[in-house]
Design brief:
This protein is mainly β. It has strands at residues 2-7, 14-19, 28-31, 38-46, 49-57. A three-stranded antiparallel beta sheet has the order 3-4-5, with no helix packed on it. Strands 1-2 form a two-stranded antiparallel sheet. It is elongated and about 35 Å long. The N and C termini lie far apart (30 Å).
């Protein structure tokens, strides 16, 4: 597992998520650990290295 820190698109707090580098490209939804709003997370890996990371707020 790979721990990555980023800024929540809702509350702007720094949060971390554990990412699985065995899946090269993935998109999933996970709640912010601070404000509990849903975040769409899209990490990309190449040879067990994080090469891209994007988060989007999910407008409700």
């Amino acid at each position: 597992m790979f721990e990555h820190y980023f800024q929540c698109p809702y509350c702007w707090e720094e949060v971390s998520m554990l990412l699985d580098p065995s899946i090269l490209q993935q998109t999933y939804v996970e709640d912010c650990e601070v404000c509990c709003n849903p975040i769409e997370v899209t990490p990309q890996f190449q040879e067990n290295e994080l090469i891209g990371f994007d988060v989007q707020s999910i407008e409700q």
